[in-house]
């Protein structure tokens, strides 16, 4: 080929082969500009370590996490970015924590880190809380729903005499 180099790129940004003269060289990309979102992926009914608080050891990280890009359904648009989702629900009275990769619902697309929007479930399932986020392993935290927090605050205030009636004489 006389000094002309030929470049063959294979499978996106995994690497390339350079051919110069009669020798072949392989270069692997050190890193890519984009990488898959990684989420915890487990359910406390099958894996007790998935319950709150999450047992986030390196051992569990090895077996209970997923790179989300490759796990999405082909029914979703290609330009949709996955999110990590954590749902706490009661199934026939049993508390279950589910952590997973997910494609956001249309009304969740602008949420970076916050509560999920409506979820449709079967009649025997009650949703306690749902949270989505878009950074690696972000679905570990224990989130408190607003109604639960208000109930606890009201009970605490009542216990310390925070509620009282006041009479005003005119």
Structure overview:
One of its GO terms (biological process) is sleep. InterPro entries: QVR-like, Sleep_regulator. It is found in: Membrane. The chain crosses the membrane at residues 148-169. Its main location: membrane. By secondary structure, this protein is mainly beta. It has two domains: 1-34; 38-141, no CATH class. The protein is 12% helix and 33% strand. It has two helices and ten strands. The strands form three sheets. The chain has a five-stranded antiparallel beta sheet with strand order 5-8-7-10-9, with no helix packed on it. A three-stranded antiparallel beta sheet has the order 1-2-3, with no helix packed on it. A hairpin with a 4-residue loop joins strand 1 and strand 2 (15-20). The longest helix is centred in the last third of the chain and has 14 residues, at 146-159. The chain starts with a strand and ends in an 11-residue tail after the last helix.
What is the topology?
Layout: E1 5-10, E2 15-20, E3 23-28, E4 38-40, E5 42-43, H1 58-63, E6 65-67, E7 83-91, E8 94-102, E9 113-115, E10 125-133, H2 146-159
Antiparallel strand pairs: 1-2, 2-3, 4-6, 5-8, 7-8, 7-10, 9-10
Q: Supply Rg.
A: 25 Å
Give the helix level as a range of percent.
10-25%
- Order of strands, widest sheet: 5-8-7-10-9
Count of individual domains? 2
Number of helices: 2
Describe the biggest sheet? Answer: 5 strands, antiparallel
- Provide the residue-averaged pLDDT: 70
Globally, the shape reads flat
Proportion of residues in extended strands:
25-35%
Structural class: mainly beta
Subcellular location: Membrane
Pfam family, one: QVR
GO cellular component, one term: side of membrane
InterPro entries: QVR-like, Sleep_regulator
């Amino acid at each position: 080929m006389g000094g002309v180099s030929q470049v063959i790129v294979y499978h996106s940004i995994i690497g390339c082969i350079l051919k110069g003269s009669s020798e072949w060289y392989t270069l692997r990309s050190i890193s890519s500009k984009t990488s898959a979102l990684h989420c915890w992926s487990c359910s406390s009914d099958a894996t007790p370590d998935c319950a709150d608080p999450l047992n986030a050891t390196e051992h569990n990280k090895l077996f209970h996490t997923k790179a989300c890009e490759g796990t999405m359904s082909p029914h979703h648009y290609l330009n949709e970015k996955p999110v990590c989702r954590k749902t706490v629900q009661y199934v026939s009275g049993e508390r279950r924590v589910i952590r997973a990769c997910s494609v956001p619902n249309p009304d969740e697309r602008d949420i970076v880190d916050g509560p999920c929007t409506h979820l449709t479930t079967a009649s025997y399932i009650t949703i306690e809380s749902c949270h989505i986020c878009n950074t690696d392993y972000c679905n570990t935290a224990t989130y408190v729903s607003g109604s639960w927090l208000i109930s606890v605050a009201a009970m605490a205030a009542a216990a310390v005499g925070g509620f009282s009636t006041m009479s005003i004489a005119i």
